[in-house]
Write a structure and sequence with these properties.
Pfam family, one: LRR_At1g61320_AtMIF1
Structural class: alpha/beta
Strand order of the largest sheet: 1-2-3-4-5-6-8-10-12-13
Radius of gyration: 38 Å
Number of strands: 15
Helix content: 25-40%
Protein name: Os09g0502900 protein
Organism: Oryza sativa subsp. japonica (Rice)
Shape: elongated
Distance between the termini: 152 Å
Length: about 350
Amino acid sequence: MGITLEMNRVMPTRRRRQRRRRRRNRHRYRSIAKLGKRKFSPSQQDDDSQGAKRMKNSGMLLSKDIWRRIHCLMPMRDAARVACVSRAFLNSWLCYPNLTFNKDTLGLDEHVCETDFISKVDHILKRHSGTCVKTFKLEVPYELDVCDHVDRWLQFAITPAIEELTLTLYGTAQKYNFPCSLLSDGMADSIRILDLGHCAFCPTIEPGSWRSLKRLCLSFVRITEDDLGCLLLNSLALEGMELRHCDEIVSLKIPCTLQQLSYITVSECSRVRVIENKAPNVSSFYFTGNKVKLSLGEWLQVKKLNMRSSRIVRYARATLPSMMPNVETLSIGSLREVYTNTLDDYID
């Protein structure tokens, strides 16, 4: 009797423990099932696939500024191609900063005609916003006469952001006058490189204009001594100057205000007779053409000298040692002089 009562007390206790254990296990399985459902739910799988795409196409998360930076480092032809297949690059093409138009970038062969060249340039400019152009290069192939359109293209390109301007009209039948009015009202202030060829140039000079100009290249350009002198006086940051076949200049005067000027090239300017340099830091001088007189001035820093002219050797031996005593690299080429016995003997 006593054992039966004791068993009756123990059994309910065991049953209660088993029930509690079952409830705990049930709760645990339920939690695992919920976790499993959450882990492998369709929505979670979509999220995972989207995350994978984001990882795969992480470049799409780049900002517009970074896309634009990448795009502007490409050559223009490549930049135009990727803009056709990428929305990100298509948007940055509107502000692509480096526009270069020549036979190669436009994909033209040697048999190109004016109509093809003009239509391709117009087609590209129509798809550009006209802002943020920093470099504009227009190199028209030989025998293409597009002068009637050049003013319009330059007007599109010359903005306060322009830094490099190149215009070369090879062999044009017309005499083209560069529209210098486009460079007024501060438009020339940002230009760092100016490269002109086969045109007339009468620069507009305003207070502070041309203050950023570092490199000046003029080839087959009709420019007067006075206009060139005014341009140089205002180009205080100028580091290099190249003049080729500028036949209206007789006396070239380089002012002392050009403290940064380090190299000068004067080539085949048929009427130049005198070159007077007062810029104190010129270290490289290159000259080809008719016999010229180098006026006494600031030539002491010249270390590299290259001269090609008729009857130049005798003049060089008599004049250059005292005028340019620090020359380290010297190249002299002369026509119409015959060497005889010693270095001092030259016959015209």
